[in-house]
Amino acid sequence: MPLRIPDKLPAVDILKQENIFVMDNSRAHTQDIRPLRIVILNLMPLKVTTETDLVRLLSNTPLQLDVTFMKLASHTPKNTPAEHMAMFYKDFEELKDMKFDGMIITGAPVETYEYEDVTYWKEVTGIFSWAKTHVTSTLYICWAAQAGLYFHYGIPKYPLAKKMFGVFVQKPIDPLLPIFRGFDDSFNMPHSRHTEVRREDIIKDGRLSLIAESEESGVSMVMANGGREIFVTGHLEYVADTLDREYRRDKGKRPDVDMPVNYYEGDNPDNKPVVTWRAHANLMFSNWINYYVYQETPYDINKIE
């Protein structure tokens, strides 16, 4: 697909090696097409990894996407070079007067904190509010999903005794929703979190629709405002070794982290991970772009409200 991303972004070379067609801004400017504007607020520690994971999934559509990366002014990442942030990311202040067809807000390693104790809570909730009037559809992932549900709808989070860690079977509650077009009766989703939102809190709020859940991992997908807000508590964007890297990082250091379940061949961490979620990850992202962004956004992007 003609995916427009910033010149020299590391993801470009990685994805070209995977035979994924990407187009840097220099070439894209020669094409007279109204691209869909997608902004990504990347709160994950390893920015380059998350950029690549998300761009890979966004590439699975014939529509032209113009991707912009947003950062917080109130937080300086420790694991990404300042040069990378300066070259490829823009502060919210630079983007607040623009409108976007779609937005993705990632997870963040702050879930064990109370929301109001997160140092950038005020800025990130300002962005949550801004998205309601400046973005056609916003996809909230993991911590962002919990934070968005709390900020917009007052849904609390609850600590878990053990990290929800592994790959879990999910079931669509309404399989006819466009977000699930092409899905099987069940699908797998990686989870990596220390907190949860609960079914009973979601279903008693008439503004929210619980659209997918798991007997093991609980609430997985929630929708509001006809798809203008979609909250995903897991990580369909994860690649094969993401959970493995997290496990090796925390092994022996945290008593609340066990081996990721339903992940390694034979449940043996000496074996390679088995990827069982990639097809549905591609489907979900392409369905989101097609049905909740492209088919809902006005041609004149300034008419988003």
UniProtKB/TrEMBL annotation:
UniProt enzyme class: transferase
Xref: InterPro entries: Class_I_gatase-like, HST_MetA, MetA_family
EC number: 2.3.1.31
Swiss-Prot/TrEMBL keywords: Acyltransferase, Amino-acid biosynthesis, Cytoplasm, Methionine biosynthesis, Transferase
Residues annotated as transmembrane: none
Residue positions binding substrate: 163, 192, 249
Amino-acid biosynthesis as UniProt keyword: yes
GO molecular function per UniProt: homoserine O-succinyltransferase activity
Source domain of life: Bacteria
Annotated localization: Cytoplasm
Record site feature (Important for substrate specificity), residues: 192
Pathway: Amino-acid biosynthesis; L-methionine biosynthesis via de novo pathway; O-acetyl-L-homoserine from L-homoserine: step 1/1
UniProt site (Important for acyl-CoA specificity): 111
Function: Transfers an acetyl group from acetyl-CoA to L-homoserine, forming acetyl-L-homoserine.
Family note: Belongs to the MetA family.
Name of the protein: Homoserine O-acetyltransferase
Organism this protein belongs to: Xylanibacter caecicola
